[in-house]
Amino acid sequence: MAYARINTITFSSEEAADELQANYASTAPEGFPEAQLLVAVRTGPLTASLTSIYEDKAAFDRSADERTRRMKANGHLMEAVDVQEGEVYLNHAR
After folding, report:
1. In angstroms, rounded to a whole number, what is the distance separating the alpha carbons of residues 62 and 56?
2. In this structure, is residue 24 part of a structural domain?
3. Helix (H, G, I), strand (E, B) or coil at 13
4. What's the CA gap between 87 and 89, in Å, rounded?
5. Three-state SS letters, 41-56
6. pLDDT digits (tens, 9 = 90+) for 63-83
7. CATH number for 19
8. Parent domain of 73
9. Rounded CA separation 52/39 (Å)
10. Which tens digit of pLDDT belongs to each residue from 3-51?
11. Cα 11 to Cα 71: distance, rounded to the nearest angstrom
12. In this structure, what DSSP letter does residue 21 have?
């Protein structure tokens, strides 16, 4: 069954949000090659929601090292990160 991670991020400043947004948009597809879906939404000047969906929990687990590396490298840009994960029971796209 597909498995997802949802990150809700509060940035330290608008400039930090702009920097991370540009970086993630240009590098995430290559950095998370097993992700079936990557969606990043700027929900406010200092907030964003990032969702990734993987084929299964094993593929999700394989992405953990890259996520940890990115969080460490970009930690100074973020004030807080709330992470949730779970099985996907609906993945609808037109």
Report:
1. 10
2. yes
3. coil
4. 6
5. EEEECCEEEEEEEECC
6. 999 999 999 999 999 999 999
7. 3.30.70.100
8. 3-85
9. 6
10. 999 999 999 999 999 999 999 999 999 999 999 999 999 999 999 999 9
11. 12
12. H
Decide if 91 is inside a domain.
Answer: no
**Token pair belonging to 15:** 């400039």
Q: Is residue 94 part of a domain?
A: no
Is residue 75 included in any domain, yes or no? yes
> DSSP secondary structure string, 33-91?
TTEEEEEEEEEETTEEEEEEEESSHHHHHHTHHHHHHHHHHHGGGEEEEEEEEEE-S--
Question: How does 71-89 read in b/e, with b if 16+ C-beta sit within 10 Å?
Answer: eeebeebbeeeeeeeeeee
Per DSSP, 93 falls in state -
State which amino acid sits at residue 40: A
Number of domains in the chain: 1
**pTM score of the predicted model:** 0.93
